[in-house]
Design a protein that fits this description.
The complex is a heterodimer.
Chain A: E1 11-15, H1 20-31, E2 35-40, H2 43-53, E3 59-62, H3 68-77, E4 81-86, H4 101-124, E5 128-137, H5 151-171, E6 177-183, H6 189-192, H7 198-205, H8 216-227, E7 238-241
Parallel strand pairs in A: 1-2, 1-4, 2-3, 4-5, 5-6, 6-7
Chain B: H1 3-11, H2 36-50, H3 56-61, H4 65-74
The chains are: A alpha/beta, B mainly alpha.
């Protein structure tokens, strides 16, 4: 009997694959049998991920997804895909009163616009196989709760939910599924690079009923689930993984 | 970067504290209103006005407003 959770025979594109959730997803997809195609701006990190997963047929492309021409050219080089993990993003801790147009543009460029541009090009260049699965990395922030200093970040992440709803309808006739994943705080280079001190992070982690932040692989497992045939009847859904944070 | 300008920008982040209470020698962690929200506002204004990034840890080590000014000036 075929294991519905397996990714054997599938080709999966992962953006933001040089570190954090993207890197863990590349590793877990490979573990589950997928061929992976990795994108990131960070060439060193990307090479590192590719070498660590150690699968000869994996491919990677260094690309700035906020540069539309670069994005289009990269998409033209991609193989046909059975899965897309649109995951690249940045975090910015900025109070609403300081959130100006330039800040807005910078964070929306990568956290929202690049995801929309990528999907638009994947469709236009006919890179999605029938029955493919698209997963957007959204967040609990902006969708299930607010975080101080995270108004813009939350806005970029909730925008992905709005986008995915209509996209799910438009792609359903080809059996292509679109879902979003909503992690709570995960220990990644992204969170370590904020201005927050380790003390503050440790204190904040106590607000989670499961007493700690998530690990990148714990989000990757859920992404693998959404990419797999176990979820062929799941589209337009939001999957929350937050250690119970939003239950309180 | 000028210290009086820095003090004004710093004091501006407080809503209820009288700006006249804040000077270069003020031990800012002792101010009643100084909490994590004010601290983030101070870090944000430093980045906006002086294009310098300061972390919470660095800020915590500063005792007076002048200490913070010197930290930003040295970056």
């Amino acid at each position: 009997m075929k294991n519905p959770f397996s990714l054997e025979g599938k080709t999966v594109l992962i953006t933001g694959a040089a570190s954090g959730i993207g890197k863990a997803t590349a590793q877990q997809c490979t573990e589950m049998g997928a061929k992976v195609v990795l994108l990131d701006l960070n060439s060193e990190g990307l090479k590192q991920t590719a070498s660590e997963i150690g699968r000869d047929d994996s491919e990677y492309f260094v690309v700035n997804l906020t540069e539309y021409e670069q994005l289009c050219e990269t998409v033209s080089k991609l193989p046909k895909l059975d899965g897309v993990v649109s995951n690249a993003g940045i975090v910015k801790s900025l109070l609403a009163r300081f959130s100006e147009k330039t800040d807005m543009e910078k964070i929306f460029e990568i956290n929202t616009y690049s995801h929309i541009n990528l999907v638009q090009q994947l469709i236009a260049q006919k890179k999605l196989n029938k029955g493919a699965s698209i997963v957007f990395t959204s967040s609990m922030s902006g969708v299930y709760c607010g975080i101080v200093g995270g108004s813009l970040y939350g806005a970029t992440k909730s925008a992905l939910v709005g986008y995915s709803k209509a996209l799910a309808l438009e792609l359903a006739p080809r059996g292509i599924r679109v879902n979003t994943i909503h992690p709570g705080m995960v220990e990644t280079p992204l969170t370590k690079n904020t201005a927050l001190s380790q003390d503050i992070l440790d204190e904040d982690a106590k607000n989670y009923p499961l007493s700690r932040y998530g690990k990148p692989e714990e989000i990757a497992y859920a992404i693998v689930y959404l990419l797999s045939d176990a979820t062929v009847w799941m589209t337009g859904s939001k999957l929350l993984i937050d250690g119970g944070y939003s239950v309180k | 970067m000028e210290i009086n300008d820095f003090i004004k920008n710093f004091a501006d982040q407080f809503e209820d504290t009288d700006p006249r209470e804040i000077n270069s020698a003020t031990l800012f962690h002792d101010l009643d209103e100084c909490d994590s929200l004010i601290a983030l506002a101070v870090l944000n204004i430093i980045e906006k006005k002086y294009s310098k990034k300061v972390t919470f840890d660095e800020m915590k080590k500063c005792k007076t407003v002048e200490d913070l000014f010197n930290l930003v000036a040295a970056k």
